[in-house]
Amino acid sequence: MDSIDEALDEIPLPPYISAEDVTFALRAISVHAAEQWPDGPRCRNDRAPHPCRLHRWGSRILTMRGLTDQQITTMLAEQEAARP
Fold this sequence. Notes:
Strand content: 5-15%
Shape: globular
Strand order of the largest sheet: 1-2
Helix content: 40-55%
């Protein structure tokens, strides 16, 4: 088995998306970003084929919240700038 992603189902979404869920989703996308490997893009955190489960979950949360790609990119940059 190539990765744990193949053995597990998708992470369930909450019944409604809170501001806290958006924060967690942004963090998931940031931590589980793509990294180029000889066999293709893999998750920087768990080396699963990209996008991994947590990256997909974060993307689904933000999409359900109605955020555009530009808004997500801006929020990720702001989150990165706020880290110590």
